[in-house]
Design a protein that fits this description.
heterodimer, A: 275 residues, mainly alpha, MetI-like fold, 2 domains, 0% strand, B: MetI-like fold, two-stranded antiparallel sheet, 2 strands, flat, disordered N terminus
Chain lengths: 275, 304
């Protein structure tokens, strides 16, 4: 049976195109505004392609602050969180999933309670703690509080629990010790879940604004999100073409990564949201 | 789950001292970090919500005075009302629209997959960038949105710069960011509905609307419920868009709880006790909803 072209199928097709435009256009507008002159950015009627690509907007952004440092900070914090989360999450999830011990239920409940407490309620206390520890001028306040990923522990434990005990037993009969079981049996089996959790963690940290906004006390520890935010103060008069150019630096790498890995990324987000 | 015979080389149940300690060693790092950065701050917050403290001299006990104060002031009550209003619109509209889209785009065709993938994109982009580009599009003087309105003969709006439309502007941005994500999750849930149910309904000549309410919606209701709770607690934590687009204003039009807490703690001096009391209120609001979420989550995973 050949698909028939009905009135609804035409309307439906057009509506989908409109929908895509609604979700792509703001990004397009951000990018082309970033390439316009000030005059062109506020001109009426608006231009939908810059008369001349203004690369100096990006130079202006780059020179308005230590952007290389901001980038380094964003990477350092994102990678730092990721590594610590991995090191803490894997053994904890293994113990909760496959080991019998007194207090397991209690400790796991503690992890779950921790998940229920968002950082929007603990930030004042953690800020004072970091202040007392004299860490506010370092990147640690942006890394350490994210080191234990309670939701990650929950997901990975669920995943580990589905690995049959027979596999672990046969590894034990082959004289594998617990650490070898962890690295040779559990990790390969849990890899898809683990990759998903860590990918989410990286994107979330890279995009994070609230936490560094509270914790970063000077420019030296700003991540890229705060650097871009500072453009609004630097320019004062709200030069939108400069602000948009700054956002292009923050957003375009993620858009490219998304364009390539969208299947994996969507699956990772959908997985953590549904399971 | 089947239990296996324990290794035969030693008596069942025997554990060396190291084997007894090992599980605790494995969970210790997680417990240390959760203790330091979740348990301790919560206790600290609750204790300090009953104290008056200016960050310099020793704190003094004031009983429930902080709570009494914030609940008597209209700023705090407004912040709660604004937060709940925001959540109702973002969650209510967001989930309804997303469900519609998910059903509409539920067949896996090239065009549908592309639409869903593109709609999802705002979810992976930093909220601060999303807020900034929308602040530019909604700019009252040179923004594109007003140019479009004028083109159709409609008057300009002041969007985030007017107390009447500021909350609406923030809600629009939140919806734009969330709809693709919600749609993707609901779509995934719909894919898991057994096809036979629809075939049976076809035999009964059920129409699309009836199929949706009798089959699709009941079958995806567990996922919908979880999405409802995560979206609501997420809305209670709104901060970035408010910070970028309105700073809680104009006046107090978009003052939400987290922004209120931030201002009490970091902008206004000597108000940290109020900030702690308000944090406790926010924690209770989120905690209750999340507790429900986890009860259902662990049951579902368990019986799968």
């Amino acid at each position: 049976m050949k698909p028939k072209i009905t009135a609804w199928s035409v309307v439906s097709f057009l509506l989908k195109v409109i929908l895509m435009v609604i979700f792509i256009f703001p990004f397009y507008w951000m990018i082309i505004t970033g390439f316009k002159t000030y005059q062109e950015s506020i001109a009426f009627p608006p231009s939908f392609w810059p008369a001349q690509l203004q690369w100096e907007n990006f130079v202006k952004v780059w020179e308005s602050g230590p952007y290389l440092l901001y980038m380094f900070n964003s990477f350092a914090v994102s990678i730092g969180c990721l590594v610590l989360q991995f090191l803490i999450m894997v053994p904890a999830s293994y113990a909760f999933a496959k080991m019998e011990f007194k207090g397991r239920g209690f400790f796991f409940a503690l992890v779950m309670v921790a998940f229920m407490v968002p950082q929007q309620v603990t930030f004042i206390s953690i800020f004072h703690m970091m202040s007392r520890a004299n860490l506010l001028k370092t990147l640690w306040p942006q890394i350490l509080p994210h080191a234990a990923n309670a939701f990650g522990i929950f997901l990975l434990r669920q995943n580990f629990m589905q690995i049959p005990d027979e596999l672990l037993e046969s590894a034990r009969l082959d004289n594998a010790n617990e650490f070898q079981i962890l690295t040779n049996v559990m990790l390969p089996m849990g890899k898809p879940t683990l990759v998903s959790i860590l990918m989410l963690s990286f994107i979330t940290t890279w995009n994070n604004y609230f936490w560094p906004f509270i914790m970063a006390s000077n420019q030296n520890v700003y991540p890229l999100t705060l650097g871009i935010d500072a453009l609004r103060d630097v320019e004062g008069s709200f030069d939108w073409h400069i602000i948009m150019a700054g956002n292009v630096i923050l957003v375009v790498p993620i858009i490219i990564v998304y364009a390539i890995f969208h299947k994996r990324i969507v699956r990772a987000f959908a997985y953590s949201g549904i399971k | 789950m089947t239990t296996m015979n324990k290794s035969l080389s030693r008596p069942a149940g025997y554990k060396t001292p190291w084997e007894k300690v090992r599980p605790y060693v494995y969970i210790l790092p997680a417990l240390i970090f959760l203790g330091l950065f979740t348990v301790y701050p919560v206790i600290d917050m609750v204790v300090r919500s009953f104290q008056k403290w200016n960050l310099v001299t020793a704190p003094t006990w004031v009983g429930i005075k902080n709570y009494d104060y914030i609940f008597k002031r209209k700023e705090f009550k407004e912040a709660i009302v604004h937060t709940i209003t925001y959540a109702i619109f973002v969650v209510g509209l967001g989930l309804s629209i997303s469900t519609l889209f998910a059903v509409w785009l539920s067949k896996s065709t090239f065009m549908n997959n592309l639409t869903r993938t593109i709609m999802f994109m705002p979810h992976v982009i930093a909220l601060i960038s999303v807020a900034m580009v929308w602040a530019w599009i909604m700019n009252k003087n040179n923004g594109l949105l007003n140019m479009v309105l004028n083109f159709f003969g409609l008057p300009s709006l002041k969007w985030a710069d007017s107390a009447d439309t500021a909350m609406m502007s923030i809600i629009i941005v939140a919806l734009w960011k969330a709809i693709g994500y919600n749609t993707m999750l609901i779509y995934a849930a719909i894919q898991n509905v057994p096809q036979e149910l629809y075939e049976a309904a076809d035999l009964d000549n059920a129409n699309a609307v009836k199929k949706f309410f009798k089959i699709t919606l009941p079958m995806i209701s567990p996922q919908m419920f979880m999405l409802l709770i995560t979206a609501t607690t997420g809305s209670f934590r709104v901060f970035d868009t408010v910070r970028v687009m309105t700073h809680g204003g104009p006046g107090t039009a978009t003052q939400v709880l987290v922004y209120y807490i931030y201002e009490q703690a970091f902008v206004l001096n000597n108000k940290v006790g109020y900030a702690f009391a308000a944090s406790v209120v926010l924690m209770v609001m989120i905690g209750v909803l999340t507790a429900v979420y986890f009860r259902i989550l662990s049951k579902r995973v368990h019986y799968q």
